[in-house]
Write a structure and sequence with these properties.
Elements: E1 8-11, E2 14-17, H1 28-32, E3 35-43, E4 46-47, H2 50-63, H3 72-86, E5 94-101, E6 118-125, H4 132-135, E7 138-141, H5 163-174, E8 179-183, E9 189-192, E10 196-201, E11 204-208, H6 218-229, E12 234-237, E13 250-254, E14 258-266, E15 272-274, H7 281-300
Helix pairs in contact: 6-7
């Protein structure tokens, strides 16, 4: 992943190059991470899973009691204007992040309900993952830091405070891995730093359920549907740490990764669970089936063209 030198940013209607974008210091998103956001990518100019992203943004806002003063149609209009003024090529594959903060106010944890929310839109060329991440796979490590308890911070709040995940990936990097796979307080597999994780266990593709504390990934949900339509068994389930070593395959899913093979997972005891390079049969099938789903989605959702 590269820097944001080529990004165009819209802060409450003011569209500028990334280096010129400004958010007030008293904005609660900056001070407290008091914000919600979504990220989508485009295919041939079409925003992928656009309706689902807006629905999840609204749900995140509801969960943190954030009254958004911007409507979804306004945000979509501003996303399109940001892209248009950014001068991106027609049909170019883009990364788009749109966030809504609770706005600026007094330095006080108790928010002023009269403050208007602020939006920030970031559009940039889609970052490309290294080809080796797909042909061989990425490495994960289980860090000491645990996922926030579900009763402390609902994982379905896609919010601006990612310190828990940052600490997880930093520890994984120190262990020599590409990313982390975090555990819940009860020792269940939860998620990677910003992706959902899947395992082939006893012939079924399994991904952690809500008890472990993970975001209900949109790519994860779409892949479940694709697999079921193709007669491949998949399920959400509780996955104890000890079950990782029993898995035949492992992969990640996210908006920008799609389906990415995992080569190995470094366990807390120093042992490594190894998986087929480039993914086993189920992983490769998931990759190919999801690509076909994307092509079908794009063809049937031309109304969601933003580039």
């Amino acid at each position: 992943m590269h820097g944001f030198e080529n990004a165009i940013i819209n802060v409450d209607g003011l569209v500028t190059p990334a280096m010129d974008a400004r958010v007030p210091v008293l904005d609660r998103g900056f001070l407290y991470g008091d914000s919600v956001y979504e990220v989508f990518r485009t295919y041939d100019g079409v925003a992928f899973l656009l309706d689902e992203h807006f629905a999840r943004l609204a749900k995140s806002a509801e969960l943190i009691h954030l009254r958004m003063t911007q409507s979804a149609p306004l945000l979509l209009d501003e996303i399109r204007r940001t892209i248009r003024e950014g001068g991106f090529a027609a049909g170019e594959d883009l990364y788009v992040r749109f966030a809504v903060t609770r706005g600026a106010g007094a330095i006080d944890l108790n928010p002023d309900p009269s403050v208007a929310s602020r939006y920030v839109i970031i559009a940039r060329p889609l970052p490309r993952w290294p080809a080796e991440d797909y042909s061989v796979g990425v490495t994960l490590a289980v860090p000491e830091v645990r996922r926030n308890p579900v009763t402390s911070l609902d994982p379905n709040i896609k919010g601006g405070n990612y310190l828990n995940n940052i600490l997880g990936v930093l520890q994984a990097k120190e262990l020599g891995a590409d990313d982390c796979v975090m555990l819940s307080q009860d020792g269940l597999v939860a998620e990677a730093s910003n992706s959902n994780v899947w395992f082939d266990l006893d012939g079924t593709l399994v991904t952690p359920g809500p008890k472990a504390g993970n975001l209900l990934g949109l790519t994860k949900g779409a892949l479940h549907d694709v697999l079921h339509e193709n007669g491949v068994a998949s399920a959400d389930a509780d996955i104890p740490l000890s079950r990782i070593a029993d898995a035949a395959e492992c992969f990640l899913t996210s908006a920008t990764r799609e389906v990415m093979p995992v080569k190995s997972v470094l366990m807390p005891d120093g042992k490594t669970a190894d998986f087929p390079a480039g993914g086993g049969g189920k992983t490769r099938f998931a990759m190919q089936a999801f690509k076909k789903f994307i092509a079908s989605y794009v063809e049937s959702h031309r109304r969601h063209k933003v580039v």
